[in-house]
Write a structure and sequence with these properties.
Blueprint: H1 2-25, H2 32-55, H3 63-81, H4 90-105, H5 123-157, H6 164-168, H7 172-199, H8 206-230, H9 234-248
Helix pairs in contact: 1-2, 1-4, 2-3, 3-4, 3-5, 5-7, 5-9, 7-8, 8-9
Length: 255
């Protein structure tokens, strides 16, 4: 049943992105994307509930479950932050990422069909996994916001001031402010996840995974610190945010 939830969620996110693109081509901003992404979020909750019941724990075992949980966290942060900062187009840019992650999870063999039930759970391990992936959701949305900034910056430099995309994108300053706040939020969540990681029992590849997590945390700490205290141009900040998020995804190779 969880496969159907995942398929429905992926389709809803794809529809939300397509509706947003269509509205943009007609030169106006549509909030329908928020509606479709909300539906995708509910279907994601259905997947996580059924899968979690089968696991007897937070469904974060294996690449497939991590990809879906990451897509869910990205959608959750968007629904909480996007409307607040009037970033309705954030859903348009986020939807393809959600479709990509969940599409990868739907590839045969990526998501375990018959999940084994976890015999014994550990609270620190559960907190480490959940907070880390939630942090990645916020950091992923910071990267999406940075992509929007880079697109707007390019539109300005090429003087494409009459395009529907340019007219509907949020102001440059708003994109930078939201990107920096999302970066802070994601880094703080990662901090909680790393602290919990040191408290959980280590065995097998857990040590290598924790080292990789600490390296990612330190890289984001450096970016947060430099951006806050030394300052970065909007373009450099956006490029580093996107690049670091893409590179940091390699930490899941150690799961």
């Amino acid at each position: 049943m969880y496969f159907w939830f995942l398929i429905v969620s992926t389709l809803l996110a794809a529809i939300g992105g397509a509706v947003g693109v269509r509205s943009l081509r007609h030169g106006h901003r549509s909030r329908a994307t928020v509606f479709w992404m909300g539906g995708a979020f509910l279907a994601q909750l259905g997947f996580l509930a059924v899968r979690g019941e089968a696991r007897g724990a937070c469904p974060l075992i294996g690449l497939g479950e991590i990809l879906v949980f990451l897509a869910w966290s990205l959608t959750l942060i968007y629904l909480l932050v996007g409307p607040t900062y009037r970033l309705s187009l954030l859903g348009l840019f986020s939807a393809p990422v959600v479709v990509l992650f969940q599409g990868m999870a739907l590839i045969p063999g990526v998501l375990e069909r018959d999940p084994q039930r976890v015999v014994a759970t550990n609270a620190w391990r559960e907190m480490h996994s959940a907070m880390s992936v939630l942090g990645y959701g916020a950091l992923g949305l910071a990267a999406v916001s940075s992509v929007m900034f880079l697109v707007l910056d390019r539109q300005l430099k090429e003087h494409h001031l009459n395009s529907g995309l340019f007219r509907n994108l949020p102001p440059v300053r708003e994109l930078l402010v939201s990107g920096r706040r999302l970066l802070w939020l994601g880094w703080l969540m990662l901090t909680v996840g790393v602290v919990a990681g040191f408290r959980m029992p280590h065995e097998g590849s857990a040590g290598a995974h924790l080292i990789a997590a600490v390296v990612v945390w330190a890289a984001y700490a450096a970016l947060v610190g430099i951006s806050q205290f030394r300052g970065l141009t909007g373009r450099k900040f956006s490029l580093l945010t996107v690049l670091l998020f893409v590179v940091s995804l390699s930490v899941f190779a150690f799961v």
